[in-house]
Design goal:
Order of helices and strands: HHHHHHH
Radius of gyration: 16 Å
Distance between the termini: 22 Å
Strand content: under 5%
CATH superfamily: dinb family like domain
Number of strands: 0
Helix content: 55-70%
Structural class: mainly alpha
Number of helices: 7
């Protein structure tokens, strides 16, 4: 059974998909300072999932250079929209290989028992990842409003589908 926190992360991912559906690539790369552009947001969220659930949890590297392009504290960038979605889908798919194994016991473990760069336990990291999605969902919604996009989705979306959804429906 999928842990409820993993289900909530997948719900946040689906909200990202819903929020950004139909955005033209040119608009996705427009940066309205001080906010980030939409393509950066997608890549940035992928970078966090990559660090936590692919690198730390699985010891794998799928997206070399992603952190340098869209990581926290890096200079602002306007990466290609399609490329960021491709990376996001690849990373979240790989992340799910680990997340599918998370149990209540797993939540109390650190991803690096040797005390390396991530000293938070899995549960705290999952919460941080979920909240990170919601933070940038708000930013993305504001960017779309400022760009004049009509018919923006209302938040929060349909939650009853969460418990009835298939195991993996959040990769687009």
């Amino acid at each position: 059974m999928i842990h409820p926190l993993v289900t909530q992360l997948r719900f946040a991912r689906r909200e990202l998909l819903r929020c950004l559906e139909g955005v033209p690539p040119a608009d996705a790369r427009r940066r309205l300072r001080p906010m980030n552009c939409l393509s950066w947001i997608v890549g940035h969220l992928a970078a966090q999932e990559h660090f936590l659930w692919v690198e730390m949890a699985q010891g794998r590297q799928l997206a070399p250079g992603l952190y340098e392009l869209v990581g926290s504290g890096r200079p602002g960038s306007t990466p290609p929209w399609e490329e960021m979605w491709e990376v996001w889908r690849r990373v979240t798919g790989a992340a799910d290989q680990y997340l599918d194994t998370v149990t209540s016991e797993t939540l109390h473990r650190t991803l690096d028992p040797a005390g390396g760069p991530n000293r938070e336990d899995v549960g705290t990291s999952l919460l941080r990842n979920i909240y990170h999605y919601w933070y940038h969902l708000g930013e993305a919604h504001a960017v779309r409003a400022m760009l004049g996009h009509p018919d923006l989705p209302e938040f929060v979306g349909e939650m009853s589908a969460v418990r009835h959804s298939a195991r993996r429906t959040d990769h687009g």
